[in-house]
Amino acid sequence: MERSSIKNEEQYEALREEGYSKEKAARIANTNNASKKGGKASKYEERTKSELYEQAKKIGIEGRSKMDKEDLIRALRKH
Fold first, then answer.
1. Where are the alpha helices (DSSP H) in the chain?
2. Proportion of the chain above pLDDT 90, given as a percent
3. Is the Cβ–Cβ distance between 76 and 68 less than 8 Å?
4. Residues with Cβ < 8 Å from 62, sequence gap 6 or more?
5. So where are the chain's domains?
6. What pLDDT digit, counting tens, does each position of 63-75 carry?
7. Checking phi first, is residue 55 left (phi over 0); if not, alpha (psi -120 to 50) or beta?
8. Model pTM above 0.70
9. Cα–Cα distances in Å, from 78 out to 4, 5, 22?
């Protein structure tokens, strides 16, 4: 995806810093209400394992109960 097609460049950059792929960051930054969302969540490394687990549960990552904090971060970033 071309960078010139990003609707919310600031949000895109924040998501990339968070570890999102280029495609996923662009998809989120290009939503109709992109200026109203994103970029304000704490970085995964700053969250507790429990918070990461709940996020993984919310989005349906399998095998999360056996993951340590680093595994959860990797899984969340890949999703």
1. 9-18, 22-29, 49-59, 69-78
2. 32
3. no
4. none
5. 1-41, 42-79
6. 999 999 999 999 9
7. alpha
8. no
9. 24, 23, 11
Q: How far is residue 60's CA from residue 14's CA, in Å, rounded to a whole number? A: 24
Of the candidates 79, 76, 26, the one whose C-alpha atom is nearest the C-alpha of residue 51 is 76
Question: 4-19 pLDDT, tens per residue?
Answer: 588 888 888 888 888 8
Long-range contacts of residues 72-77, Cβ cutoff 8 Å, at least 24 apart: 72/44, 73/19, 73/44, 73/45, 76/44, 76/52, 77/19, 77/20, 77/21, 77/44
Amino acid sitting at position 38:
G
Query: For residues 79 and 72, what is the distance between their CA atoms, to the nearest angstrom?
Result: 11
Does the pLDDT value for residue 77 go beyond 50? yes
Structure tokens at 31: 């939503």
Cα–Cα distance between 48 and 13 in angstroms, integer? 23
